[in-house]
């Protein structure tokens, strides 16, 4: 809405005016004040209408985008029922979520994956992701490794899964071919020099939420070993023989710590 303008006031009377000029200017000025009062009332009314409109628009927006929150809200910011299509940013999962009318669901990017979290190592004994990340929203997860370097030379880079949120980890039944191993082997004899780049690549974990079927893991990594050679992952496919749903996973080196590097976790939409 266009706000009405206020008319310019005439010249006000001054003590230096002649009596006749003073009286003429005073009469005109007082008459203009009456007009100005009416114009101000009109303008203020128009502004109040605009303010009410903007407030209504903001309230409508606020009902649809709820802002940043650490968990799925049960009500909107006004304490009212959620609208289908409402959005909010989950600060724990680092993902946008949309309300479907009955539940919150993460919004996928164009590739169909959602970045859930990313951890930069700094001399960590293990890097673990629990049920705040593997929360049952996705049945498939991708773990991306970028230059994950050990503190001890010639160490193996391993992973184990958990079915009790990390209280214990599965130590048997990681089958690659006919070999039964105690962990997922992501890299052998990894070099500890930062210039050797450590482990880089991806691991996909599938069937995570099933409570009746075994799980599958596909590993596609490149390892720079302790001789500076670039080696592929020797065991790229795994059958993890646990029927219970997986709700945590850890990564670690066979000796020493994870000195540096980055591990990111993505959920994959079906």
Write the layout of secondary structure elements.
Elements: H1 19-64, E1 65-69, E2 87-90, E3 95-99, E4 104-106, E5 113-120, E6 126-129, E7 140-150, E8 155-162, E9 174-176, E10 179-181, E11 184-190, E12 199-206, E13 215-224, E14 230-232, E15 237-240, E16 248-253, E17 258-268
Parallel strand pairs: 1-2
Antiparallel strand pairs: 2-3, 3-4, 5-17, 6-16, 7-12, 7-17, 8-11, 8-16, 9-10, 9-15, 12-13, 13-14, 13-15
Tell me what you see in this structure:
This protein has 270 residues and is of the alpha+beta class. The protein has a domain at 111-268: Jelly Rolls. The protein is 17% helix and 38% strand. The protein is built from 1 helix and 17 strands. The chain has one helix at 19-64, and strands at 65-69, 87-90, 95-99, 104-106, 113-120, 126-129, 140-150, 155-162, 174-176, 179-181, 184-190, 199-206, 215-224, 230-232, 237-240, 248-253, 258-268. Strands 5, 7, 9, 10, 12, 13, 14, 15 and 17 form a 9-stranded antiparallel beta sheet that branches. A hairpin with a 2-residue loop joins strand 9 and strand 10. The longest helix is centred in the first third of the chain and has 46 residues, at 19-64.
